[in-house]
Amino acid sequence: MYKNCDFIQNINDELWLTEKEGENLTLSYRLKEIIYEENSPIQHILIVDSYDFGRMLVLDGIVQTTEKDGFVYNEMICHIPLSLHPNAKNVLIIGGGDCGVLKELSKYPSLNEIHMVEIDKSVVEASLKYLKGVSGGKIDKKVTLFFEDGIKFIQDKKGYYDVIIIDSSDPLGQAEALFEKDFYKSVYEALKPDGIMSCQSESPIYYSDVLKNSYDSIKELFPLVKLYSATIPTYPGSFWTFTIGSKKYNTVARDDFSLDTKYVNKNIINTCFNNAEFIENLINS
Amino acid sequence: MYKNCDFIQNINDELWLTEKEGENLTLSYRLKEIIYEENSPIQHILIVDSYDFGRMLVLDGIVQTTEKDGFVYNEMICHIPLSLHPNAKNVLIIGGGDCGVLKELSKYPSLNEIHMVEIDKSVVEASLKYLKGVSGGKIDKKVTLFFEDGIKFIQDKKGYYDVIIIDSSDPLGQAEALFEKDFYKSVYEALKPDGIMSCQSESPIYYSDVLKNSYDSIKELFPLVKLYSATIPTYPGSFWTFTIGSKKYNTVARDDFSLDTKYVNKNIINTCFNNAEFIENLINS
């Protein structure tokens, strides 16, 4: 099955997945087995079980999330904007096919409506079936899934959402447009007058130009912009950032945060916008 | 020259260094060139120039520090204990051969005496000559270097130091004893009655047992123990922790912090002890 992927190799009877992080760095994970493989109309989908990171979702050869460290990303991109907004009811996820953000959103009984627009239905189906450690294996009743292009989807929405979470892959190929100002403008317009967006804004070490462009674009549109970071071992450089654009709310102070989480807690929420000096210098330059 | 290292390979005219992170993960860095190689009586020393991380110090095939991300580790292991202590004069580094911590300590004009005890003189000499991006290339006048076993060295010192920084490699081979309670006890006794120690306490993902043992040992000895973390891309799992044992001082509040740094700033100092939930659960279990 895995003979179709040049990034999977059998070396001395051991199965290894080798991921290229740019031209000058590779990460190789020893695998227990290949769980699922599919060539969807959009991309090559692989779910593998690795020794060090448990099951992993791999799209076109790039590790997207793992059972071992996926919680860091999913909790940080979700609970920080939800903590900033005092009364979110309607939330949209753009991307998010592994359903990890959906799982985090299902922890909020106060939400009325959760929409997710994901271009590749196959990723959602495979993640729900074979990646339950990330997805939870099921979808909340409040959730409506839209399998279409997020960029087109958002253009028809005006003033509808309290929070929009942009859970995109790296800015390569089709995902590139999800880091551009035109797209953030559509997101701005789809939010209510006190709405908040969050997005992953890449590594300050590997993709500092992407981070900076994304931050600057959001800053031009939203009156309030904030950046925060977390360590995600399976992402290149591991140092990962998230950016928030907010129309009104500026302060997180959630001493009552009590959701069942593995990374985020009230101290993380209250202090996450304190960035390392080189990141502050980058976004303020 | 590099033919002696099985972890350096020439693949299609490209030079690659492959580092094993345990049995199930490898990281491969593309290199520009080998800068320096030596078999010292202690270990195999290699300094290489890599495309993504600049010059790197590699001991027995393990990347110890790089020009690109070494500042995170060196600033965090140094400036947090120095911020906690209101009036440090005598500081000891145990290990620290790459001289990165020495460079950070040289930023404090208020210090009287800086001792460093490092078992391998060759690492210090190579780092000062070929790894100036980390070491700074020179040593402060206040510094006295001792090239001997840190464990024996510390046993003769009683109540002498304000701050002791344990800058060790991973707990393998000779460095293993630097994570044991007997050693922390010697460190405790070498400190003044209001002294503070800091050490690297490994990854909460890859070496959670080492972290936990180290934390518990320090907690049994010192009335105050604190853990903090940072992202270090070239360390396995990238999520790295540091532990502080303090005899007296408990609060960092350094709104006057103004040293020339790339990672640490006053906000990082004031909030660094807020750990992710899974780390809090680990150290409080």
From TrEMBL, chains A, B:
The active site is at D167 (proton acceptor). Residues 14-247 form the PABS domain. CDD domains: AdoMet_MTases. It holds the Pfam family Spermine_synt_N. Its EC number is 2.5.1.16. It catalyses: S-adenosyl 3-(methylsulfanyl)propylamine + putrescine = S-methyl-5'-thioadenosine + spermidine + H(+). S-methyl-5'-thioadenosine binds at Q43, E118, D149, G150. Spermidine binds at D98, D167, S168, S169, D170. The keyword Nuclease does not apply. InterPro entries: PABS, PABS_CS, Spermi_synthase, Spermidine_synt_N. GO terms for molecular function: spermidine synthase activity. Pathway: Amine and polyamine biosynthesis; spermidine biosynthesis; spermidine from putrescine: step 1/1. It comes from the Bacteria. Keywords: Polyamine biosynthesis, Spermidine biosynthesis, Transferase. Transmembrane segments: none annotated. NCBIfam families: PRK00811.1, speE. Catalyzes the irreversible transfer of a propylamine group from the amino donor S-adenosylmethioninamine (decarboxy-AdoMet) to putrescine (1,4-diaminobutane) to yield spermidine. Belongs to the spermidine/spermine synthase family. Homodimer or homotetramer. This is Polyamine aminopropyltransferase. The lineage of its organism: Bacteria, Bacillati, Bacillota, Clostridia, Eubacteriales.
